[in-house]
Amino acid sequence: MNTSTLSTIEPCKLTKSALTSDKPTWCPGCGDYSVLASFYKVLEKSQLPHENIVTLAGIGCSSRLPYFVNTHGAHFIHGRAVPLATGVSLSRPDLHVFVFGGDGDGFSIGGNHLEHGARKNIDLTYVIMDNSVYGMTKKQTSPTSPVGFKTKTDPGGAVDQPVNPVKKLLAAGATFIARTHAAQVNHLTQMIERAMDHEGFSVVEVLSDCSNFFPDAFDPANPRKGGEFKIIEEKKWDQTPEDEGRHDVTNEAAAYRLADQPFPGLFGVFYEVNRPTKNDLEEMWIDAVRGKLAHCTDLEILQQTFDRMK
Ligand SMILES: Cc1ncc(C[n+]2csc(CCOP(=O)(O)OP(=O)(O)O)c2C)c(N)n1
Ligand code: SF4
Ligand SMILES: [Mg+2]
User: Fold this and answer.
1) Protein residue whose Cα sits closest to atom 8 of ligand 2
2) Cα dist. 203→75, 160, 219 in Å?
3) How far is the CA of 165 from the centre of ligand 3 (A)?
4) What is residue 7's predicted lDDT score, i.e. its pLDDT?
5) Which of 7-16, 104-113, 199-208, 286-295 is the least confident region?
6) Whose CA is nearest to atom 3 of ligand 1?
7) What percent of the chain is predicted at pLDDT more than 70?
8) Is 11 left (phi over 0), alpha (psi -120 to 50) or beta?
């Protein structure tokens, strides 16, 4: 095909059927179905070029999500989704990188990687499907399991203090942090959408029931089950007296205070700031080096670097 023919091809509309891949294999009632449905909605609305979307994950029930989305993607090593995504994001800043995974994958085995992805402010969107249990391996205690929860690893009930995801992410340096619930599909969709629009390391913690091993873990946050889904009211900067009491998403100390509320806590955007991404900083550095060595090919630059190391 010649290039003039290529330039006349209309880009395909990004529809749910274009995005749908294998049929999900989650258990009936698993909260992860809603996350997938919301992700389809966000992508359909965004109309990003289909070929520029990448969906990555570690290992776990939640981490199976890339199988069910027809984009570039990978189901990678347990806990290693963030390093993989870091490489993809830095080497191909033109792509939209989405990472999906569970509480075990993100806060346990992958906890260290999460910290470094956040402090480097890698440009990607990470959706953590938090069911407070290791679902795939059939009910072990996870880093977000509540004290007293009986599992195969804690038959007498969990005794360790659970991780507070929002506080952990604030301390690590994530530049967008939101929290939502899989049963609140509109809110969930809005949060993923805002995270996607954010430039930098954006994270959405989604409370997502494991109907098999921890059903009803999040009832107190689910209005359908008599609980209360309390949404953070963000400042509108409209000079009204009501605005005094609203949350300034750029205020880190205020975000900590909101994250400290007792379970089920609050939902919405806790924190959102702009800080240079590692993608931008690396690009500046690469451009500066290329400027100095404009006469050299990439291979020659690499060879010179190796020669200096000898
Ligand atoms: C290196 C390594 N360690 C342990 C495992 C076993 N393993 C697979 S999934 C998983 C936990 C998954 O829990 P979570 O991330 O919360 O996902 P969920 O299944 O609950 O969605 C573990 C421990 C593995 N596959 N690889
Ligand atoms: S075991 Fe739990 S997390 Fe895994 S698919 Fe079933 S309901 Fe979902
Ligand atoms: Mg889990």
Assistant:
1) 30
2) 19, 24, 23
3) 13
4) 57
5) 7-16
6) 78
7) 97
8) beta
State in Å: Cα 143 to ligand 1 middle. Answer: 12
Query: How far does residue 102's CA lie from ligand 2's centre (Å)?
Result: 11
Ligand closest in space to the Cα of 110: 1
Cis status of the peptide bond prior to 264, with omega within 30 of 0? yes
Residues 71-82, mean pLDDT to the nearest whole number: 97
CA-angle at 39, arms to 188 and 30, nearest 5°: 70
Give the CA distances from residue 146 to residues 30, 139, 233, 252, 262, in Å, rounded to whole numbers and listed in that order: 19, 13, 27, 25, 12
| Encoded tokens for 177 | 């942090």
Is beta strand 140-141 parallel, antiparallel or unpaired with respect to 133-134? Answer: antiparallel
Q: What is the pLDDT of residue 5?
A: 54
Residue whose CB lies within 8 A of the most ligand 2 atoms, among 23, 25, 30, for a mutation test: 30
Closest CA to 210 of 149, 125, 126, 147: 149
d(CA 290, CA 284): 10
181 and 189 in contact (C-beta within 8 Å)? Answer: no
Rounded distance between C-alpha atoms, residue 298 and residue 294, angstroms: 10
Q: Which of 196, 214, 74 minimizes the C-alpha distance to 140?
A: 214
pTM over 0.85? The answer is yes
Cβ burial, residue 3 (10 Å; 0-12/13-18/19+):
exposed
- Give 1's pLDDT tier (boundaries 50, 70, 90): very low
Report which of 290, 288, 309, 285 is spatially closest to residue 301, judged by C-alpha positions. 290
DSSP 8-state assignment for residue 206: E
- Cβ-in-10-Å burial (0-12, 13-18, 19+) of 128 comes to buried
- Rounded Cα distance between 264 and 237, Å, is 28
Alpha-carbon distances, residue 199 vs 66, 175, 180, 266 (angstroms): 22, 8, 20, 24
Do 100 and 65 meet the contact criterion of CB atoms below 8 Å apart? yes
